[in-house]
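Input chain follows. Return structure tokens only.
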Amino acid sequence: MEKSRNATVTREKVFLFSSACERRNLDAQKIYNYLTGNGYKIVNDPEEADYIIYFTCGFVKSVSDTCLKMIEDFKKYDAELIIAGCIQDIIGEELSKIFDGRIIPTRDLDRINDIFSNKKTKLGDLEDAHSMWSNFNKRSFLGILRRISRSIKSIEKSHNWFKNHILKTIFGENFEKIFPFNRIYPHQDIFCIFISRGCIHNCSYCAIRKAVGPLKSKPIDECIKEFKLGLEKGFKHFVLEADDIGHYGIDIKSSLPELLDKMIKIEGDYKIELKNFHPMWIIKYVKEFKEILKRKKIKIILLSVQSGNNRILKLMRRPYTKEKLQDTILSLKKVDPELEIGVHLLVGFPTETFDEFKETLDLFEKTPFDFGSIFSFSSQEGTTAAKMEPKIKWKEILHRMKYALAYLRKNNYFACYIKSTKNVYFYKK
């Protein structure tokens, strides 16, 4: 359990670490801004810290299990451990068995004001962060690599030469889009805009809705204001983020196409990337998106497709068919052949047969995916999928991941299996 705390001791050094998604890494960066603005020092070594703030994820069981192990590791340090992110609202009972300290829930980040009280700046006084937190832990291998990368980036000419003549030669043009490259060598030239929080969907495998809460869209005027701020600062690559970007605006009688239409009417040399897109919305708004794409400002769309089999999609409560999805993507690529389409897929959903898994890979035969990831499924308690039988054994899931890896490499993708995450990551060569 947590070490006892002496309220009279002044604590000034904070170690931040995240095992979470990009949305939570934006939250982590905002908390970094809050802490540094209030005089706290952020350290890269948990051994030096008075506080450790750990951002967790509970997307699937394998991820939350990894977070629980990290919590046990962080408890070994002589610092107050504070848990942030989604894990508390997803597996709170399991978390309580190993942790009884203070928590900053995803849907109530302002709870940090109660922990670091009597400070001149409250978290709510700050605007959302426009860059993502990147871990710098001097006690980890990835942390060392990031520090080397940052050192290289401090010298502009060396950075560009190393990136364009070494890394791209070895790994290809799109290497920065996927894990682990996007974590080792994080983008420094993107401007993120968090356009909404929360989720309205009820996917049978996902528990994130419990943590992020209901949809709360940022008003269009505020989004446009942040976009103009990025342009004024010289940014040319913008990323729109949300727990699901597709349902932006339906709670404020607006829509994503309306936001994008107003945004891309602003003149300038820039491109926009749309992250975490539920396919039902790209299908719903296909007519509007065709008009938007004609203006050549949307560079990348990342779709959470999950499966290429209609029976599995129905069990997942994903309200679209693979045929409709493929037709939609092809129609958008016809309007703008340079549009890059990324994809997230899940392998090993309960009852999925090997032939149904192969249908997911068959998506690549017709659909021009440029990059993406294939997640190995592990059911999270409290979801409908956790009650479905039969479950696919891990040995079989691993076999399918290896099969997918070979398939992708055969079809001109750079693909790798990362043992620590149990996922395959790929991009078109």
